[in-house]
Amino acid sequence: MADLILTGASRGIGHALALALAEKHTERLVLVARDRARLEALVADVERKGGRAIAVPGDLSSRAEARALGQRLAEAVAPGATLVHNAGLWPSKRELTPEGLEAAFVVNHLAPLVMQQALLEAGRLRRIMVVSAGLILKGHFDAARTPTGEDFSGIRTYCNTKLCFALAMRDVAAAHPELDVLVLHPGVVRTDLGVRTGPLGWLLSLVKRGWEAPEVCAARLARILARERWSPAGEARWLVEEEEQPWPAVAQDEATRRAVRDTTARLLAAA
């Protein structure tokens, strides 16, 4: 039985996906999130459905924490594992990490790369799925401002950081043709991502009532995970829900791709 690592497993899409996969009994689930109690409760729920799961608590709020998490995962899983990058942050205000970087830039982009690198170095991965966002098409990367959030926006920062990670994963696919890599927009899903307080939060809660439930999205992702192959060797394809689409224009822009690549390499080298 192969291993499937699922980040952001304690709530929303991740929680629903873990329960959907539990019913298939095809993989051991390696569930990752910050909240140990919620993870352990989810492990129990998975096992009640006949699945197998373990909890690996971990934090993607810093490069150091991500590196430690990656090492723990490399020790816990066998070669041939699938990694589902699902954890994410939609910030409402600019916050800096102790390293002086904007929090969403770390959680949505740098830290997943650091965590993943330990698994790649240990030869543990066969497939990587990135639960991204259709809003990458609104993203813009400023090498001088985005990493530290000097261009912070309650909407745009999410778009920018999701774009960065999508572009980085295209480079990972090119550098590791042995991997099957996919980046996708999962749908417009009713979760607590991007929750706000006050009148804006109230309005958003009303709008979200019309969005699909996490369980609907989870069933979609489970179908995609069941596919024999996602992308040609050396490439990462882009899916909008279950349909392959051309990459958005901003993700094809060579200047943007080069700026993200160079900035990411510099920051990872300094970690």
TrEMBL record:
Swiss-Prot/TrEMBL keywords: Oxidoreductase
Record keyword DNA-binding present: no
Upper taxonomic lineage: Bacteria, Pseudomonadati, Myxococcota, Myxococcia, Myxococcales
Name this polypeptide is given: Oxidoreductase, short chain dehydrogenase/reductase family
Provenance organism: Archangium gephyra
Single annotated GO MF: oxidoreductase activity
SUPFAM superfamilies: NAD(P)-binding Rossmann-fold domains
Matches recorded under InterPro entries: NAD(P)-bd_dom_sf, SDR_fam
Record PANTHER family: PHOSPHATIDYLINOSITOL-GLYCAN BIOSYNTHESIS CLASS F PROTEIN, PHOSPHATIDYLINOSITOL-GLYCAN BIOSYNTHESIS CLASS F PROTEIN-RELATED
UniProt keyword Protein biosynthesis present: no
Highest taxon in the source lineage: Bacteria
